[in-house]
């Protein structure tokens, strides 16, 4: 697509199935690197990644011809397969069905990166559900409380 110029930044948030604390410190860095490789394989750029044992945040730049839904399908399927093939695995690794994705302007990218890097101190006083609810409201996204615990 000659003469097409985009800067499509997304803050993406999703959790493990049932909010299980499956992202253990011993696998976290490798999982994050693996997810980065999936994104690069789809010609995207992982700008920041972080989270907690039960959820993950990504700041990504995607190409115009790659949908967020397709990218998330690939990230979740490939990374859960990778996690389930690890020898030290003690329970089945699964991601939740859905996800949340928010557009980010370039002027706010540094703020979102900092937010993602500071997940551990952030969650000392706030649950994932509280965080997700606040993000959805901040971005004007309508939601039903009963679907937040997927």
Quick rundown:
The chain is α+β, with helices and mostly antiparallel strands. It has helices at residues 25-41, 68-84, 109-117, 119-122, 128-138, and strands spanning 8-15, 45-52, 55-62, 100-104.
What do these coordinates show?
With 150 residues, this protein is an alpha+beta fold. The protein has a single domain, classed as Transposase IS200-like (Alpha-Beta Plaits). It has 5 helices and 4 strands. It has helices at 25-41, 68-84, 109-117, 119-122, 128-138, and strands at 8-15, 45-52, 55-62, 100-104. A 4-stranded antiparallel β-sheet has the order 2-3-1-4, with helices on both faces. The longest helix has 17 residues, at 25-41.
Which secondary structure elements does this structure contain, and how are they paired or packed?
Layout: E1 8-15, H1 25-41, E2 45-52, E3 55-62, H2 68-84, E4 100-104, H3 109-117, H4 119-122, H5 128-138
Helix pairs in contact: 1-2
Largest sheet: 4 strands, antiparallel
Radius of gyration: 15 Å
- Tell me which CATH architecture applies here: 2-Layer Sandwich
Give the distance, in angstroms, between the N- and C-terminal Cα atoms: 38 Å
How many helical elements? 5
Instruction: Name the helicity range.
Output: 25-40%
Structural class: alpha+beta
Order of neighbouring strands in the sheet with most strands: 2-3-1-4
Instruction: Output the helix-strand order.
Output: EHEEHEHHH
Shape: globular
Instruction: Provide the β-strand percentage band.
Output: 15-25%
Kindly report the CATH topology. Alpha-Beta Plaits
Tally of domains: 1
Mean pLDDT: 92
- Which spans have pLDDT < 50 for at least 5 consecutive residues? none
Q: State the CATH class.
A: Alpha Beta
Q: How many strand elements?
A: 4
Superfamily at the CATH H level? Answer: Transposase IS200-like
């Amino acid at each position: 697509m000659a003469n097409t110029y985009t800067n499509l930044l997304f803050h993406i948030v999703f959790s493990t199935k049932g909010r299980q604390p499956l992202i253990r410190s011993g696998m976290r860095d490798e999982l994050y690197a693996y997810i980065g490789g999936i994104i690069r394989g789809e010609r995207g750029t992982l700008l920041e990644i972080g989270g907690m044992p039960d959820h993950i945040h990504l700041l990504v730049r995607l190409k115009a011809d790659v949908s967020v839904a397709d990218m998330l399908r690939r990230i979740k399927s490939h990374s859960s397969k990778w996690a389930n093939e690890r020898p030290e695995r003690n329970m089945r690794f699964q991601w939740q069905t859905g996800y949340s994705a928010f557009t980010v302007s370039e002027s706010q990218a540094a703020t979102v990166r900092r937010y993602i890097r500071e997940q551990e101190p952030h969650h000392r006083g706030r649950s994932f559900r509280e965080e997700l609810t606040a993000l959805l409201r901040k971005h004007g996204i309508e939601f039903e409380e009963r679907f937040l615990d997927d």
